[in-house]
Amino acid sequence: MERKPRRIILVLLVAALALAIAGQFYFTRRRDYMWDGVALYALAALCFALVLRQVEGRVPRTSSQPFWARLHLDLWELLGASPYRLAALIAGVALSAWVAKAALSRTGATGPYYDLLVLWLVGIVLACLAFVDLNALRKLSPRRWTIGPEAVLVTIIIVATFLLRAVRIGTVPHILSGDEAAMGLEALAVLEVLPKNPFTTGWLSHPTLYFFIQAGAMRLFGANVAGFRLPSAFISAATALLIYAWAKYAFGRWVALLSILFFAAYHYAVHFGRIGLNNIWDPFFAIGALYGLAVGLKEKRIGHLVLGGLLTGLAIYFYMGARLIPFILLVYVLHAAISERAFLREHLAHLVVFGVMALVAMAPLLLYFASEPANLMARWRWLSVTASGWTSAQAQQTGRSELAILFDQFVTSALAFHHSLDPTFHYRPGRPLLLFVPAIFFVFGLVYALRHWRRKEYFILFAWILLVMIFGSTLLENPPSSPRLVLSIPAVVLCVAIGIWQFSKMVRHLLQPAPLAASSRRPSPTTAYLLSLILVGVSSLTSAGFYFGEYTTQRLYSDQNTLLADRLGRYLAMLGPEYQCYFFGPPRIYFGHATIPFFARDTVGVDVREPLQGSLTMVNTERNAVFAFVPERQAELEMVRRSYPDGLLREFRDHKGHILFIAYEVLIR
Q: What CA–CA distance (Å, rounded) separates 559 from 132?
């Protein structure tokens, strides 16, 4: 490298880092000057892009070839030209279709549904067997498998990923949110063998199959908070493995290692991996489907295509955000088809296999949505700023155009990882979704991905994040709501790792003395490896430290009503079903808040909606009574005490000393 270009690169790289630090400083400490931060980050991105151009030169264009296809012959070849495998595929598809129809006809019936669940799984297995080469499987011998240092290291990180989410999972977060409890109650209904169809929707139009998974975990680990939260920890560990597999294939072993090191301790991922919501399953299905599709197409590996198709189809049974996954994959396929003219000729049959496996997996729920389209779009109608009429109402109130209002929504969403704060009670860390250091390198990684947009592995990262920002935040109310952005976690993690690695390589080039003209010695990569490891280590330690330190100790999770419900539910469970609860909570909070009945499942509760006027005629004389008062209705306690003077009074306070509720226990029997 010549002296002048080296000086230019040094100046640009230092400028990029300084501007990014200044931009994040404005986002963090001078929040009222948000656009100053945006401008500084834009300049930092420009400087980093110029550094990449100086070091790498122009990005070459991808060559293209003409297109034609012989689909039926290619499919027959993928089936091994075997009529038995074709029969297995037909049987699998037929079984899935029959289960879909049978599940739809049984909606509202009183009988069990486990037979349909088993037959659906059998159909999936048959469809898989149609494309699996059994002879090749027989040749695989465990004796030939070797476990090297890489496998050991990755296993350690995956175990650490699980432990950071599973240890004390029943008490961190410290309370059970209402949404968690509602899903837990659905799972308990499955445990109690109530008529529960796994191929329909339940609470708030969430697909019910997830509740069967939670029920299985509760049967294994206990029907308690830890029991139904543990699936989130397990799926997070599986996600780490898939992130490593995809990153290693697309970006190299070192970026893969940096990615899962950061993912293991990333506070945003840790939190959703410790609660019982189905959001954290989105990253697992997204990264798995992309990995299966990409490797299956590139290497023509039918097993990967089958895996990717299954994960794409299964994703529909979980959080609504997973319905964006097919669109992310479509962007990947379209990019490949445009940049490689021979793509469709070579891979149309592979895409058909991928699609067939996805349809086999999703058919039962897909048919249900076809018959009940209102349930498919229910959450969109509730939360969409356009479908609900929110944008037009805001335009009338403010006098601004709807386009300007949507632009504000987009800016707020796009800055979720740098400046905007999560307004929901599902996480609400009081900080952006990336801390200071990783936020800087996320921008660098995004710049690098955009510069290499002709490579679909990089382009898909940008498209992935953009799709989530638009459909998971901009077009929905209350952005940037953390539960709706969980799908973007793998792409964000990969951008952070890529940004750190590329920055570290730039520093290595600058620190390496200029070689003599006659020397062919290449720069040592040690500096880049060490610096990137330090940066990821700092990012991971600060992230984990924030979550298990500041966030956990300050008890920022959820809201005051949910804290009240959590304490009341646990208290009533301690009293037992011999007591009937009379709850003086309305209109602020009602006994039906899901957290209360989750803990006090056998306790009868009555909402006292109107202020007491005279005698306590609503009291059941067949049970002992406990009267629970929120502070706003504390004055009514005296009327209860006049009727029952020998009761026991208890006060329940939060960690700051504020009264949550007052309980008055009365022995009637």
A: 50
Q: What angle do the packed helices 325-339 and 281-299 form, to 10 degrees?
A: 20
Half-sphere exposure of residue 454: CA atoms within 13 angstroms, side-chain side: 9
Determine whether 257 is exposed, middle or buried from the number of CB atoms within 10 Å of its CB (0-12, 13-18, 19+). Answer: buried
Tokens at residue 472, please?
Answer: 């998971």
Q: Give the structural domain span for 574.
A: 560-666
Residue 52: CB atoms within 10 Å:
21
The reply to whether the predicted model has a pTM over 0.90 is: yes
Residue 297 has, within 13 A of its CA and on its CB side, a CA count of 27
In-domain check, residue 58: no
The residue-averaged pLDDT of 299-311 equals 94
Strands 579-584 and 605-607: parallel
Centre a 10 Å sphere on the Cβ of residue 448 and count the other Cβ atoms it contains: 23
- Element spanning 579, H or E: strand 579-584
DSSP state of 623: S
SS3 468: helix
In this structure, how many other beta carbons lie within 10 angstroms of the beta carbon of residue 185?
A: 18
Give the residue among 384, 365, 385 at the shortest CA–CA distance from 375.
365
Phi, psi of 51 (to 5 degrees): -60, -45
Q: Where are the alpha helices (DSSP H) in 222-324?
A: 225-251, 253-265, 267-272, 281-299, 302-314
Is residue 612 within 8 A of residue 586, CB to CB? The reply is no
264 falls within a domain: no
Q: In b/e form, how buried is each residue of 371-402, taking b as 16+ CB within 10 angstroms?
A: eeeebbebbbeebbbeeeebbeebbeeeeeee
Residue 509, pLDDT > 90, answer no
Tell whether 658 is covered by a domain: yes
Q: What is the bridge-based pairing of β-strands 579-584 and 624-629?
A: parallel
How many domains does one find in the chain? 1
Q: Which amino acid is present at 664?
A: Y
| Residues in the chain, total | 669
Is the distance from CB of 57 to CB of 15 less than 8 angstroms? no
Of the candidates 570, 571, 573, the residue with the CA atom closest to the CA atom of residue 603:
573
Q: Which two tokens stand for residue 214?
A: 């939670």
C-alpha dihedral, 166 to 168 to 174 to 175, nearest 10°? 60
Residue 580 falls inside a structural domain: yes
SS3 of residue 589 by DSSP: coil
Q: Are 463 and 470 in contact (CB under 8 A)?
A: no
Write out pLDDT tens, residues 223-252. Answer: 999 999 999 999 999 999 999 999 999 999
Residues 6+ apart with CB under 8 A from 70: none
pLDDT digits (tens, 9 = 90+) for 372-387: 888 888 888 888 998 8
- Helix 34-56 and helix 436-451, axial crossing angle in degrees, nearest 10: 50
Question: Distance (Å, rounded) from C-alpha 286 to C-alpha 273?
Answer: 16
Q: Are 504 and 532 in contact (CB under 8 A)?
A: yes
- Within 13 Å and on the Cβ side, how many CA atoms surround 5? 13
CB contact burial 84-117 (16+ within 10 A = b; e otherwise): ebeebbebbbebbbbbbebbbebeeeeeebeebb
Q: Are 291 and 304 in contact (CB under 8 A)?
A: yes
Given a contact cutoff of 8 angstroms between Cβ atoms, the answer to whether 589 and 566 are in contact is no
Burial class (CB in 10 A: 0-12, 13-18, 19+), 547: buried
CA distance 228 to 337: 43
Q: Residue 154's pLDDT band (boundaries 50, 70, 90)?
A: very high
